[in-house]
Design a protein that fits this description.
Elements (H helix, E strand, L loop, with lengths): L25 E6 L7 H14 L4 E5 L7 H4 L10 H5 L5 H4 L1 E2 L6 E4 L10 H11 L5 E5 L6 H9 L2 E6 L3 H16 L7 E8 L13 H8 L2 E7 L2 H9 L8 H13 L11
Parallel strand pairs: 1-5, 1-6, 2-4, 2-5, 6-7, 7-8
Antiparallel strand pairs: 3-4
Helix pairs in contact: 1-10, 5-6
Length: 270
């Protein structure tokens, strides 16, 4: 199948000779309406592929009580401090950063296993201190539009809405998109990522007819189509790197390329 459509307070301990003034990280929030759309997996995939293209990426997980990024990024068991510890002042930001051993260039600050509250002011201070050391800072928000979403929305320059091809997800995605745009995000900075797509996702007998219906329902431009992938599921569940050359990895690389401003045709092979 081929598809195309017109176009706080912390000091970072680093092992790089770049000074903070050399870079100023772009901030991107990855969000969804309903849960179960693969938002966290997509966050790690984007971070890994940006890192593979030479960018230094920090992924901050804000979904308190439902930690999963640590496993998907291969840092399970290596986390001592989490984002709650940083925001509450129990540790400096650099103490919570864990480099991914499976995706070089990607670092993670995990959410707590339980409890925790995301507060905009200390999160903003943390980002201000860190953004000089990274090319991209990604926020993996919780599903819905609660405190993690609201805090990330205040700081993110771009937003990616990760949805699956079903009417409920698309309807909720439209609510999220409208909230972001009404909250001051330029419409062009809010993009759609369709995840877990197969050849059977669309057609006359499917709940959603085609990708155009997805785009029209949500009301923002499409950034990427990520196929349903056994390799992606297994890699995340086992804390291993996604195999190079599989369909999901290629889709992730294309997504990262478009975020970097590269003109890459939007294709899908299911």
């Amino acid at each position: 199948m081929y598809y195309t459509r017109g176009n706080v307070c912390c000091i970072i301990s680093t092992k790089t000779d770049r000074r903070p003034a050399d870079v100023n990280a772009q901030t991107i929030m990855i969000c969804s309406g309903k849960g179960g759309t693969g938002k966290s997996t997509t966050s790690v995939l984007l971070g890994a592929e940006l890192a593979r293209q030479g960018r230094r990426v920090l992924l901050i997980e804000l979904d308190s009580g439902l930690r999963s990024v640590d496993l998907i990024a291969g840092v399970y068991g290596k986390t001592v401090y989490d984002i709650e510890d940083v925001l509450c002042g129990r540790c400096q930001g650099d103490k919570a950063i864990v480099p991914s051993p499976i995706y070089p260039g990607l670092s993670v600050i995990s959410a707590p296993y339980e409890g925790g509250e995301v507060r905009p002011a200390p999160l903003a201070a943390l980002i201000l201190a860190m953004r000089g050391y990274f090319d991209f800072i990604l926020f993996d928000t919780a599903a819905g539009m609660g405190a993690p979403f609201q805090a990330a929305a205040q700081l993110a320059e771009q937003a990616l809405i990760v949805l699956t091809p079903d009417p409920v997800a698309l309807r909720d995605g439209r609510i999220v998109a409208d909230a972001l745009i009404e909250g001051g995000h330029p419409q062009d900075n809010v993009r759609l990522v369709m995840n877990r797509v197969t050849r059977q996702s669309f057609g006359r007998g499917a709940p959603v007819f085609d990708l155009d219906e997805c785009i029209d329902t949500v009301g923002v431009r499409l950034l990427a189509v990520i196929p349903e992938s056994r390799e992606l599921q297994l890699a995340g569940a086992q804390g291993e790197a996604l195999p190079q050359g599989c369909a999901a990895q290629k889709a992730g690389a294309a997504m990262a390329g478009r975020v970097l401003g590269q003109r890459i045709p939007l294709t899908f092979t299911g």
